[in-house]
Every structure is written in structure tokens, then in C-alpha cells.
């Protein structure tokens, strides 16, 4: 199981979103995820709001987290949910969480998280990623640039590894579980042997 907990946005107090998620196996192949493997709580998506249901169905549903179109400004391919948790207007509810469930064990090489780009303030900021309830990553996602800021010279196109072995590239966070765990083991070994 992979669990992503969203603790804050890039400024919006009411909504939080992502463009998509991609999981890759130990051979670097994308793992196909079915909608039945995906859950989100306390809100599945924006359609959990009564006022949205009265107007009809909003296209920014949970299924969009696993659709292959992630590098986009078109909200038909994005997930949006009411923002909840201690840093939101709904402090009494738990933080937004996304679960990806697997029927059998799987070896992962990396995870890509694409931030919400239609309204960058609604993008996820402070997140935690758990792998089978073990904390894998705690940190921040970069905000998506505004649509008119996407020239190749924009600083969000820079890439590289941060101090935790996390590779960041324009609107997308790559999490390398194996590299991260090897870094932890190396640090532990150095600490014990000193």
C-alpha cells in the first residue's frame, strides 16, 4: 500500500489537487493502476460536495490521478477535493489522504507525483508518502508554474536530487524508495561505525 497524506496547499484554504500519480516497478516499467485500487479520504473528490452534485458531475474526479495525461493545464485530467485537516478551514477532519492498494507485493523503483496546475495555489505542498505504513518521504512539492510561465528558461524546469535522494523536475516529484532507503542505511552505518 502507498499512502500520500497532504498537509497543506500552496495557498488555497478550500481545495487541494494533483494532476496525477505514476508508480514504476523495479524494472522501471510503469505499474498499471485500476480505479478499484485507488481511494481518497475524507473526500474522494470534489463531487463529494452536495452543491457540486446538485449542479451535475465535476470532471476533476479521483480517476484522473491514474489517467496518463499528467503534464497538462486541462482540468479534465486533474483531481480536486475539498481541503481538510489541521491547516484547512475544516480542522476537525483528517488531512486529505490518497491510498493505492496492491493485491500482491510489488517492488518499486520510483513514484512520480504531478502537482495541480490549473490553479497552482490549489496544488499540494507539504506531503508525506508512506509505503506499507513506513514513512518514505516527508517534504514539499513545488507549485506548478502559471500557464504563461512555462518557457524553457523557467526555473521549474531545473532538475536534480535533493538531500534525501528525491529527484525533482518541473511540477513533478520523483520519489526513489530504493535510493532513499540505501541513503538511510548508509547514514546509519556511518553513525554506528564512528
Q: Could you give the order of strands across the largest sheet?
A: 4-2-6-11-10-9
The parts where pLDDT drops under 50 for at least 5 residues are 151-170, 182-194
Number of domains: 1
Globally, the shape reads globular
In which range does the helix fraction lie?
10-25%
- Helix-strand pattern, N to C? EEEHEEEEEEEEH
The value of Rg in angstroms is: 17 Å
Q: Estimate the mean pLDDT confidence.
A: 82
Counted by DSSP, the helix tally is 2
The separation of the N and C termini measures 36 Å
Structural class: mainly beta
Strand content bin: 25-35%
Q: Describe the sheet with the most strands.
A: 6 strands, antiparallel
Total count of strands: 11
Amino acid at each position: 500500500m502507498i499512502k500520500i497524506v497532504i498537509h497543506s496547499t500552496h495557498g488555497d484554504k478550500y481545495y487541494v489537487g494533483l494532476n496525477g500519480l505514476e508508480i514504476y516497478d523495479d524494472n522501471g516499467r510503469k505499474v498499471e493502476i485500476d480505479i478499484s485500487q485507488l481511494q481518497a479520504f475524507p473526500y474522494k473528490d470534489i463531487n463529494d460536495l452536495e452543491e457540486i452534485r446538485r449542479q451535475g458531475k465535476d470532471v476533476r474526479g479521483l480517476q484522473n490521478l491514474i489517467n496518463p495525461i499528467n503534464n497538462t493545464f486541462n482540468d479534465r485530467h486533474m483531481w480536486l477535493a475539498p481541503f481538510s485537516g489541521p491547516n484547512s478551514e475544516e480542522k476537525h477532519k483528517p488531512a486529505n489522504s490518497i491510498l493505492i492498494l496492491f493485491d500482491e507485493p510489488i517492488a518499486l523503483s520510483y513514484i512520480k507525483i504531478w502537482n495541480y496546475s490549473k490553479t497552482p495555489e490549489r496544488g499540494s505542498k507539504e506531503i508525506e508518502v508512506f509505503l506499507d505504513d513506513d514513512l518514505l518521504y516527508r517534504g514539499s512539492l513545488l507549485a506548478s508554474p502559471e500557464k504563461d510561465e512555462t518557457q524553457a528558461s523557467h526555473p521549474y524546469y531545473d532538475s536534480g536530487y535533493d538531500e534525501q535522494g528525491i529527484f525533482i523536475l518541473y511540477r513533478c516529484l520523483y520519489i526513489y524508495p530504493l535510493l532513499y532507503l540505501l541513503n538511510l542505511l548508509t547514514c546509519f552505518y556511518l553513525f554506528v561505525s564512528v
